[in-house]
Design brief:
Elements (H helix, E strand, L loop, with lengths): L2 E5 L2 E4 L4 E8 L7 E7 L6 E6 L6 E2 L8 E6 L4 E6 L8 E8 L16 E2 L3 E6 L1
Parallel strand pairs: 2-11
Antiparallel strand pairs: 1-3, 3-8, 4-5, 4-9, 5-6, 7-8, 9-10, 9-11
């Protein structure tokens, strides 16, 4: 059974940067596309980024494209989300997800259609 564990969240001042990590276990990492999402208090979960199984294709929506970047390290079964110039409105729990279908990782995602979710890591951005 695939398991995902996020790390790297914490408290950061506005304008700062964080690198979130998501470690994969319980399956073959290369078989999965990976994505990042976040959920702020009182809001719906939001899609942030996706990366193909080999890292050759990435997509980040325009809303965060200038500040967030996704990458993966298949040798270490880890996917990353690099976040720059953080703002108070970026405060949320950040989740990674795995899917054997790259295009399921999208804004109009269906949570149950993805193969696995992590438990999330909290990012708090202070003003």
């Amino acid at each position: 059974q695939v398991q995902l564990v996020e790390s790297g969240g914490g408290l950061v001042q506005a304008g700062g940067s964080l690198r979130l990590s998501c470690t994969f276990s319980g399956g073959t990492f290369r078989s999965y596309a990976m994505g990042w999402f976040r959920q702020a208090p009182g809001k719906q979960r939001e899609f942030l980024a996706r990366v193909s199984w080999d890292g050759g294709s990435t997509y980040v929506p325009d809303s965060v494209k200038q500040r967030f970047r996704i990458s993966r390290d298949n040798a270490n079964n880890t996917v990353y989300l690099q976040c720059h110039n953080l703002r108070p409105e970026d405060t949320a729990v950040y989740y990674c997800a795995a899917s054997t279908r790259l295009l399921y990782l999208r804004a109009a995602f269906q949570a149950d259609a993805l193969d696995a979710w992590g438990q999330g890591t909290l990012v708090t951005v202070s003003s």
